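User: Structure with guanosine-5'-diphosphate, tokens only please.
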Amino acid sequence: MAGISWHYVLKFIITGDAAVGKSSLLIRLTDQRFLANPDPTLGVEFGSKLITIPEENKVVKLQLPERALMARDVRAHADPHLTCILVGNKVDLCADDGARRQVSTDEAEIWAREEGLLFVEASAKSGQNVDAAFEEACRDILEKIRRGVFDDDRSPGVKLSKPAGNGLTLDPPTHASSSCCGT
Ligand SMILES: Nc1nc2c(ncn2[C@@H]2O[C@H](COP(=O)(O)OP(=O)(O)O)[C@@H](O)[C@H]2O)c(=O)[nH]1
Ligand SMILES: [Mg+2]
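Assistant:
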């Protein structure tokens, strides 16, 4: 992969209710930090990060605008093959005191399966599973690309270059796919 900055740009939207930890997940992912008392009015506008998916031998650039969008609305308007991952954040609080858990892992897992979402419990505070959540979503997207699920003509969120021959041998930085990440 010498000389290649990234193979794909994947765009993620982080949605969820106020104070679930959207900004904190974004800061943890892109800046490896946790702010105990972030200013809720200070929007974290944008983040980006390069990650490697070794199984696919690909480097992906994640782009993450944080948007006050309802996950439901995103899914209604996006490509039907959109990859969504449900992130149960603040799992560190459950380790301190199990009684603080709001949703059981079983309940979340069942709901995610019914809705066709990937699922992970994470903590922006400890960093647990934050990178892993995005890596899992990226793996899912790359697998869909490899299987030809995204069609250049039909999928507005996917921009493939038109290289000679193999459509997956791509020159950066020309590609975009979409994802959303609900907390
Ligand atoms: N214990 C704990 N607190 C968190 C975690 N993520 C966010 N918070 C706190 O939850 C509050 C809301 O977080 P914020 O990122 O502003 O939520 P947003 O409104 O969804 O962007 C802040 O006080 C954060 O410090 C986490 O993983 N664990
Ligand atoms: Mg926020």
